[in-house]
Amino acid sequence: MQPQNGIPIDYYIWLAAALFTIGVLGVLYRRNAIIIFMCIELMLNAVNVLLVAFSTYLNDAAGQVFVFFIMAVAAAEVAVGLAILIMMYRNTKTTDINILNRLKW
Amino acid sequence: MNALFVICGLGIISLIAEIANFRKWLISIIVLGLLGAAALVVADWNTAVAYYHDMLVFDNFSLAFTGLIIGSSLLWFWTASDFFEALFHKTDKSALILFAIAGGVLMTSFNNMAMLFLGIEILSISLYVLAGSRKEDLGSNEAAFKYFLMGSFATGFLLFGITLVYGATGTFQINTIANYVLTHAGELPSFFYAGALLMLIGLAFKISAVPFHFWAPDVYEGSPTAVTGFMSTVVKIAAIASFFKIFATCFSTIAPVWYTILLVIMVLTLVIANITAVYQNSVKRMLAYSSVGHVGYILLAFLADHKESDGTIFFYLAAYAVSSLAAFGALILVGGKEENTLVERFNGLFKRNPIVAVGLTIALLSLAGIPPLPGFFGKYLVFAMAINNGMIPYVIVAIVTSLIGVYYYFRVIIAMYFKDAVAEPLKVSTSKEVLIVVLILITLALGIFPDFLIQLL
Amino acid sequence: MITFLTFKIILVALVFVITLLVAAYSTYAERKVAAFLQDRIGPNRAGPFGILQPLADGLKFIMKEEIIPVVSNKFLFILGPCIAMMTALMAGVLIPWGGTLTIGGETYALQIAELDNGILYVFAVVSIGVYGIMIGGWASNNKFSLLGAIRASAQMISYEIAMGLSIIALVAITGTLSLSEISAQQAGGTGGDWNFWNVVYHPLGCLIFIICAFAECNRTPFDLPECETELVGGYHTEYSSMKLGFYLFAEYINMFISSAVISTLYFGGYNFPFMNDLGLDQNMITIIGTVVMFAKVAFFIFFFMWIRWTIPRFRYDQLMNLGWKILIPLAVANVFITVASYLIFK
Amino acid sequence: MLTVFLIFFPLLISVLLLVLKPAHAKVWALAASIIELAASLFVAYSFDKNGGLQYFVNVPWIDSLGLSFYVAIDGISLLLVLLTTVLVPFIILSSFGHQYEKPSTFYGLILMMQMALVGVFTARDGLLFYLFWEAALIPIYFICLIWGGAERGRITLKFFIYTLAGSLFMLVALVYLYFLTPGEHTFNIYALYDAGAALGPYPQALIFWAMFVAFAIKMPVFPFHTWQPDTYTNAPTQGTMLLSGIMLKMGIYGVIRWLLPLVPLGVKEWGLTAVIISVIGIIYASCIAIVQKDLKRLIAYSSIAHVGLISAGIFTLSETGIQGAMIQMISHGILVVALFFIVDIIQRRTQTSELIKLGGIRNAAPIFTTVFIIVMLGSVALPSTSGFVGEFLLINSLVQYKFALGIVAGLTIILGAVYMLRSFQQSMSGEANAITATFTDLTGHEKLVLYPIVLMIIVIGVYPAPLLDISESAVKNIVEIYSNYSASVK
Amino acid sequence: MQLTNRSKLVVKKEMNFWERMYLPAILGGVMITIRHLFRRKSTVKYPEKTREISSIWRGQHVLKRDDKGAERCTACGLCAVACPAEAITMTAAERKKGEENLYREEKYASTYEINMLRCIFCGLCEEACPKEAIFLTDRIVTTDYSRTGFVYGKDKLVEKVDDRIDVTKRQTLAVQEFKQQKQLSHNK
Amino acid sequence: MTLNLFYFLSFLAVLSALMVVFSKNPVYSVLYLIITFFTIAGHYILLDAQFLAVVHVIVYAGAIMVLFLYVIMLLNLNRESEPHKSNILKFAAVICAGLLLVVLVGSLKGTEAIVQQSGKAGIGYVKTLGEVMFKEFLLPFEITSILLLAAMVGAVMLGKSEKTNDTI
User: Fold this and answer.
1) Would you call F100 helix, strand, or coil by DSSP?
2) Which residue, among A20, A29, A80, would best test binding to B if mutated, counting the most B CBs under 10 Å from its CB?
3) Which residues cross the membrane (chain D) (predicted)?
4) Could you tell me which chain E residue has the CA closest to the CA of C38?
5) Range with the poorest average pLDDT among B160-164, B311-315, D358-362, F132-136
6) b/e for F35-53, b at 16 or more Cβ within 10 A?
7) Best of B134, B145, B190 to disrupt the A interface by mutation (most A CBs within 10 Å)?
8) CB distance F63–C127 less than 8 Å?
């Protein structure tokens, strides 16, 4: 299959899978809450890339519109997540972030 | 649809209440509004209408679950009225709750992956915040953060799944997807199945099925009790409704792909959740595990016959919601300001406050599935369905786990009736007493005349 | 194609040089304006009227000793000013500096690149600019720098929202995100067909945009990130020599670009009144237009300085109040009012 | 309609007691139970011995579950309903010597229990039967939990889970059968009979065991009995009476009504096993009873032995056996209530029920001792007491079934005599000690309980025919159904 | 205690809508500044142009010689005593034979230093001097790179024989008269 | 040319994504993530979705990552504050992720079923997107406002200090 920009869709799927997996890896690998958080953003972006790729290949704008929703949600999540972080920080009154490490799994 | 608008409008009204200074009447307005929404749901009954380019479809399934969500929310507002008595953020909290309810309604009525996704996110984001609404309490903070991280993580999986499904079928409309799958059976790309499974994982996080449940106990324990009550009723209803909708419509034809996986998840959920619940010292945490366990029963019904199980699941959830609300209502009263819900706290509750004790007892009995309470009929329907579909070994597993369930529920009952009271009598406001009586009556009524709800779907 | 490329390359070089030149002379102008507004005469030693002062300053920056704090993060410490400079320069790509020139039968637009969502591109670049300040401030490992960096980021994010909202009304009415089209739509009146500058239609939006532009450029009265009375020098406390020069340069380039964007969006860009009624050659109009454009830009740069020496600095909470509680609601209201009145009076 | 009255009248009173908490709850409860007794006597009076099912009510309840409120009375049901309605007033009366906390709750729960028991004995719908079966569990659980002895928390939970576990398996079996009923599925007992009989031997065996376990736990039969002694000891006396006097009969009734005709092949295949288990249980329980130091525990074990005999008799599947079981159920119910009341009296006066600490009561309380002797003799099945009729019929049927088993089971009379007489000897005769010296004789309400019971023991022992008549046709009917099915399959 | 009428009482009254908009006020401020843009600049381009100075402007000191070219200073130390900034130090020495043309009297200052960094140019030294040896001139103390460079010794203070500094403007008639009245002098 | 660009961008994306995970210093993680985002924006442009690319840069690089950096700076996170995670767990995480990758790649093969739809080019233009968004996806678009409102209310509620007006 040869789409207009000459790159097979498989490549994008693999790229997205790789990025997604790296995101998952980060979530599992790291203990630092904020990095886990960033890795989740990475996962969402992997999804976005794939959506845009599919959208281009299927010639259907809905995929790209969906990306906007994901972006909106990501922004909302970041706002809330960081607010939670700040709240925790204020409670402990310390710059030591170890408090987050009660999160064990 | 109109109910959805009403709920969103109520959320905005409660934000306006902060500015326009009518906080006092806010709860009354919300209750009236929700009643109105319920009436709208009833009025829409038997009219399967698709709205806005098929974004939402309010058929009887959606309406029933929407009604259930609204009903539970109404009761929840009553049980959790103390939650809104706090000095700060009264209106914010109620607005968030209402938005969460709106999200839940979307999750029951979506017909497009975008609506599912947004519904889940509206619900989740509101709850992340509500989970942390005891701001000075580190446990609550931790709950919020953990819920947040795991919720977002699950969202990632869900989205990846949606994307792959979209890539394979070229649409986000679930009925179109279902048709596509039906007409293109055998020629679907393999990543369609991967997408379905990733969505399964994502939704399993949301309904907190083992092994994707590990966030649930911590979050349930850390959150304010009222919010936990909300999570374990309204949220659970919405999550399961969306799970059902996706897998019974979209992926119904590829059932062999997910059947075995879901079967394993179901058994694990039943066994692990119920066994772990036994070891909990906090009643809240125990209820958290039990709520995970209940998902197992629902999954059992779903697996037995995923197309026809909606009525069973609906009744199970209704029964579970009522009992759960009663339990959490009692928990809020017993836990007091410091939200201490250790089992010891319940010692001698029968002597300290018989009404609360009896209410909690009936709730727990119903959760344990003792006839003639609704919880029994829920379980009965599930078992009957499973037996009818030849899943007797799994029914045996479910029976054993529900016996384990009896064990841990009865620990609380024993504490209430058998142990000596450690504290002075528990004073409870009249409205709360009335509430408990009402909840008891609803529970009993559901138990004695369950037919209406069972036949609803 | 070749000529097109050549033209573009020349244009890029030209814009680059002009940008640097304008930025350089802005430093001079800043001192001059400050002096004049305070009844002084400002630098006047280097060259006639001190016209070579920027060169002298530049020379001084280069000759100064490089100081990199031992405890700082060296890589990021150097990266900071580079990012600041780079993003500042990048924003000029989309500004239409003039109309079209016809040389040898070929028509060239006096714009380096044309995107159908040019405004957004400018926004994107501007929003990245904050990294320079944040990274530099953090890498300095100095409390004042860090405070400056934090202030800068919070301030820029806050004001970006109002800024973005303020132009939504404009975009809604003009129906395009392309800067060149917006410019073209404000072309001077032709035979009874009156096209006013956008500022006539969007006075409130323009005001908000200008205020936000001040904040985005960290200019007084919003220069909290570097206010020397509180934070010594803010994010560039630890910087010296050319790295400091980069930061200062970046600030002036930003000012230049902001002025250009303001004039393009709201004040007609390269258009001037009655330009189509004069019966001039197209190339002539373009050249005059470019001059006009630069005149407008110059005015806004002057305006930036003028305001700087008029209004005292905000307190930080006042800054945030202004951004969140006043500008954003105003911007939203502006959208509603503008769109509603457009629908009514259309 | 009378059946409905019999079921719901106690419930109504119970709810009234629980909600209104009147001052003299015990009087209310007693009055209610007497009205109930009168109603049941009226039923017995107007009962047509050869009329099959009578007083039946069949209204659909939960359509979607195939559940209908189908209750009816036949001979077997009537006997057990009578047992219930007769014993409950005595049980309530026997509690007059106690000052229970929250009396209205206590009596409310007893009446609720009565409701469930009557329901169990009259239900003709599988699910309804199950519902009543479980409903009986809740009040007794709370009675034991709230007013029981020191160890009650753990022990009652064990009891609860045991019985619930058994009943859940029964539920699975019922549901399984439910889905085999033709057309619109139904839980109607006769439809279930048909569905069960139509199955092959293997599923029938599975169903047999699923249901047998439920009933065996309730009775309790030997390997499933471990909850029983502890629970009996720890429960308040009235609870023990309810458990042993009536509730235990639920299991036996279940076997007769819900097991034998339901899965004839299963019964046929595994009946012998059940008999053997039961007989082992008899011997085992009797032997343990002999070495018991505590009077209450001793009676508990004796109860296991008796029930074992009944169960063994039923599984002989002969009319004699089942009739014997019927009469023995009545007799055992009366006797065990009397025995536990006697223990209760001893315990209340001496604060102990350990045999070693007792002795010499007969000097202090001659009337009491006399009553005890009569009850005890009834329990060891002395001819002309009620116990004799039942045991005779049961052993008779066992001998006919398998001679050796009959002989072994017959040992129960001897062993029973051993432990009963030993207990009597240790508690009543001998020298009075500090505790028993001040033993007062029977008081008013105690006499009111014990005299009628003694009378009944003797009357039934001498003239059991009316009772046997009542149940005869129903028993015949069941045996017939069973033999028809098993013959037809053959 | 109210000394002047210039102080203004600050009132924190609620601002009305227009005031809260700030824009009119900002506009006012902007107008003020723009007006200054066109004002005449008050800067004097110094080296090329200097500002006029007053006739009694007090600049760098000078140690005068008499008409014959001998130093007038006798190292009496009155100037150092009078100096409020303690900027003046000196050491006295006796005149040798053959130095009569150098020093007017038998005693003279072998060193005389004024620390220009300390000096406040108050002119008290001039007033205190009984020999009319030290005067403040209209010369400017020049800049220097080192601290020590500002400690002016006799090399910088004493006027050159061939380059006499005219202080007559400072020695007005009134001053001379004042100095002749012995009873008014400081060191009576 | 395009393919090479794709390779380059993908390589950079994956590399910097890995660096996000393995950088010791959170600030470096943020910076690497920003690089990843830029490469993703590059991919968008390759896919002819310029509008999305610009919005992506504005939202992710311009707002979200600034917030991350802001919080990291505010909380003074540095490499010492990262708690030790046992090597076994890390190993398990790597194995899990590796398995996921293998499963994904394995299951994502075989894309023949996607038929390239012929149609007008330039679906990435604002106009096309606007048409779809405001016609077909109008309801989700409106519902997003509820989402953002909830997030806003929530963030303010959590972030606001209740006791006094001391700012952090």
Assistant:
1) helix
2) A80
3) 67-93, 105-121, 127-147, 159-179, 206-227, 239-260, 272-291, 298-318, 324-343, 364-383, 403-421, 448-466
4) E36
5) D358-362
6) bbbbbbbbbbbbbbbbbbb
7) B145
8) yes
Residue B105: pLDDT band with limits 50, 70, 90: very high
The DSSP bridge pattern shows strands E107-115 and E61-63 to be: unpaired
Average pLDDT over residues E135-142: 86
Q: Which of A8-12, B55-59, B306-310, E53-57 has the lowest mean pLDDT?
A: E53-57
Q: Kindly report the average pLDDT of chain D as a whole number.
A: 85
- Chain centroid to Cα B395, Å, comes to 23
What are chain C's partners, defined as 3 or more CB pairs within 8 angstroms? E, F
- Three-state DSSP class for D1? coil
Query: Is residue C222 included in any domain, yes or no?
Result: yes
Name the B residues in 378-437 with CB < 8 Å from any D CB.
380-381, 383-384, 387-388, 392, 395-396, 399, 402-403, 406-407, 410-411, 413-414, 417-419
Is F55 close to C120, i.e. CB distance below 8 A?
yes
The range of the structural domain enclosing residue A24 comes to 9-102
Q: How many domains does chain A have?
A: 1
Segment C246-263, tens digit of pLDDT: 888 888 888 888 888 888
Reported in sequence order, the residue ranges of C11-154 that DSSP labels E, i.e. its strands, are 100-103, 106-109
Q: Is residue C209 part of a domain?
A: yes
Say whether D62 and B380 touch across the interface (CB within 8 A): no
pLDDT at residue A95, as a whole number: 42
- The H or E element containing residue B50 is strand B49-51
| pLDDT at residue D283 greater than cutoff 80 | yes
Q: Which of E37, E40, E42 sits opposite C37 (nearest CB)?
A: E37
Query: Does C149 lie at the interface with F, CB-CB under 8 angstroms?
Result: yes
Domain count, chain C: 1
Query: Chain A: residue nearest F94 by CA?
Result: A25
A3 domain-assigned: no
What is the mean pLDDT of the segment spanning E34-54? 81
Do F10 and F42 touch, CB atoms closer than 8 A?
A: no
DSSP 8-state secondary structure symbol assigned to residue E92: E
Answer yes or no: is A1 within a domain.
Answer: no
Best CATH choice for the domain E61-187 from the list 3.40.630.30, 3.30.70.3270, 3.90.70.10, 3.60.70.12: 3.30.70.3270
Q: Each residue of D342-381: pLDDT tens digit?
A: 888 888 888 877 887 777 787 778 888 888 888 888 888 8
ipTM, 2 dp: 0.84
Instruction: Supply B376's token pair.
Output: 């029994």
User: pLDDT at position E2, please?
Assistant: 66
The dihedral region occupied by E165, where left means phi > 0, alpha psi between -120 and 50, and beta the remainder, is beta
pLDDT of residue B214: 82
Q: F167 pLDDT exceeds 50?
A: no
Judged by a CB distance cut-off of 8 A, whether residue B148 touches chain A is yes
Chains touching chain F through at least 3 C-beta pairs below 8 angstroms are: A, B, C
Any chain E CB within 8 A of the CB of C44?
Answer: yes
Amino acid at B144: A
Q: What is the DSSP string of C109-134?
A: ES-S---TTHHHHHHHHHHHHHHHHH
The binding site of E for [4Fe-4S] cluster consists of 73, 76, 79, 83, 119, 122, 125, 129
Confidence band of F168 (pLDDT split at 50, 70, 90): very low
Q: Is F144 on the interface with B (CB under 8 A)?
A: yes
Tell if the CB–CB gap between D146 and B371 is shorter than 8 Å.
no
Of C204, C230, C209, C216, nearest to C313 by C-alpha is C230
pLDDT digits (tens, 9 = 90+) for E141-161: 888 899 989 999 988 888 888
Contact A81 B171 (CB under 8 A): no
B92 touches chain A (CB under 8 A): no
B 203-232 → A contacts, CB under 8 A:
214-215
